[in-house]
Amino acid sequence: QYRYFSFPLPFVINFADGKGMVTVEIALATYETTLRSERLMEKITTFTPKLRSAINLLIAEKTYEDVNSVAKRHALERQLLQAIMPIIDGANAAEPSRITALHFTKFVVTGIR
Q1: How far, in Å, CA of 57 to CA of 48, rounded?
Q2: Phi first, then psi: what are they for 42, rounded to 5°?
Q3: Which of 17, 23, 55, 87 could bond 108 through an S-S bridge, CB–CB 3.0 to 4.6 Å?
């Protein structure tokens, strides 16, 4: 069964070059059994501060030119997913979680100069 975890607060991050900022809302998708899904949601909730930090740091390395198209935003979704998986699964996961995707549910760029 599909299940989604939405971060309760948006991410508001300045671009690396100081020329604007981005506000994003993010949801993680998983496909698990009900019991495993519940455990995974608890784990994500526990690690939310660490996940938020990893997401903030990765996006803060970007400029507007890195995210100014749909294809580039999809690439960023994949990069973020790769960055957070080790946090959720641990370094040597015997049985990795089945987080299938990271989705931007909101993506707003402001202050471009």
Answers
A1: 14
A2: -65, -40
A3: 23
Output the six-digit token pair for 5.
């975890």
* DSSP codes of every residue in 76-94: HHHHHHHHHHHHHH-TT-S
Q: Which of 47, 35, 49 is nearest to 98 (CA)?
A: 35
Task: Identify whether the C-beta of residue 30 lies closer than 8 Å to the C-beta of residue 3.
Answer: yes
pTM for this predicted structure: 0.90
pLDDT number for residue 93: 64
Question: What SS3 class is residue 29?
Answer: strand
Question: Do residues 19 and 113 touch, judged by C-beta distance below 8 A?
Answer: yes
Q: How far apart are alpha carbons 24 and 52 in whole angstroms?
A: 12
Does the CA dihedral 112-27-83-56 come out positive or negative?
Answer: positive
pLDDT tens sequence across 30-80: 988 788 888 889 999 999 999 999 999 999 999 999 999 999 999 999 999
Alpha-carbon torsion angle 77, 29, 39, 32, nearest 10 = -130
